[in-house]
Amino acid sequence: MTDDPNIASKIITNDPWFGSYAQRAETMRASEIRALFAVANRPEVVSLAGGMPYLGRMPFDQLSEEIGRMLRDQGEKAWQYGSAQGDPHLREDVLPIMAMEGITNAQPDDVVIVNGSQSGLDLITRIMCNPGDVVLAEAPNYVGALGVFQSFQVDVVNVPMDADGLVPELLEETIKAQLAEGKHIKMLYTVPNFHNPAGVTMSRERRPKVLEIAKKYHILILEDNPYGLLGFDGQTYPALRSMDSENVVYLSSFSKIIAPGMRVAWMVAPPGIRQKLVLANESSILCPSNMSQMTITCYLDNFDWKAQISDYRNMYRERRDAMDGALREYLPSCSWNKPEGGFYIWLRIPDGLDAKAMLPRAITAKVAYVSGTAFYNDGNGKDHMRLSFCYPTPERIVEGVRRLAGVIDRELETINLFNDADAEPTSL
Ligand SMILES: Cc1ncc(COP(=O)(O)O)c(C=O)c1O
């Protein structure tokens, strides 16, 4: 997630509107990631913090010619208001993309174009959840979704994950416990592929089980899938939506497979929900930008986007390997998953260390990461950090991990020093 660090991370003192805000605004907090950006983006800092895709390999020269042509030929449409559901051409264009993950029965009319997945998360929560309703979510959780749920005053209840993703048995246990407390469970939010931040993927075997449990308790599944086509070996997994079109709202985005600047993503939802999503999109933004949608269409129609995605996969695999290799060399005291796709490694740091407390020292040593605490709503996560390998070059990644190892080693030395001092007899 990216954001302008200069706005919400600044503390505004003497705000004359203090006390006037709606309750939902009171619960809004600058994410830990946003607060970090101001310093982490300095060139001398190796940032392993942000989830920005690397765009250096996009064919911008040729693209600008095609976009110029598009504007000349269809300028009146591009600069005009459009449909609240999204441009029909783009709604058609996303079908073959979804087919790569097994969704073959969706029609353009089932699709709603939104301003990035982030807006999709906002719209679905707005139409489904009242304050106090429960959303079940994997823990750790995508920080942007936590922000949305918080702003709608939803109770996020964590369901544990392991190396195969969400654990179905624990999902059912959690549902039963919540129902026993009289809670209204509205959705299960899941990022099944190459999870942000955990890096894991829900196994093929678990997918039907999760669907079955959600169906049994009439809980809508919100499947957030921005990374599904970024499996490093070209592997894809069947989308939950490909197995169930009635109980799943599917959300995907061009942000990671093309580029995030156009803010174009899409949702596929059962008819009743889709209708509400279109109304919510309209009341929120009137319509997604024609210019952005047509730029994406221009790219999809004129370039070999499958080759581009495959190029991205190779590039990100190389970066994942650089990070994994550097961690093995410099940080054997930590443990981590080796993700098969996506952007992130979820690093467990040695016992006794606190990723959040250590962060200022890491920034001083010119390396940035996101503390695991950002991905929990209950203060957990200080024993983990998220390392992103998407943006820096392999050489910078290795240097960043080397610097991080220096910080962790010094931290461990300090802890050991105090532990040894504790063992000394004292006469105080
Ligand atoms: C899991 C997940 N969902 C949604 C988003 C938001 O993506 P978009 O750029 O489409 O708003 C991100 C961005 O990092 C993400 O990781």
Automatic annotation (TrEMBL):
GO BP annotations listed: alpha-amino acid metabolic process
Annotated Aminotransferase class I/classII large domain residues: 69-404
Signal peptide: none
SUPFAM superfamilies linked to this entry: PLP-dependent transferases
UniProt keywords, alphabetically: Aminotransferase, Pyridoxal phosphate, Transferase
Domain of life per record: Bacteria
Cofactor entry: pyridoxal 5'-phosphate
Gene Ontology MF terms: pyridoxal phosphate binding; transaminase activity
Subunit structure: Homodimer.
Similarity comment: Belongs to the class-I pyridoxal-phosphate-dependent aminotransferase family.
Protein known as: GntR family transcriptional regulator
Organism: Bombiscardovia coagulans
High-level lineage: Bacteria, Bacillati, Actinomycetota, Actinomycetes, Bifidobacteriales
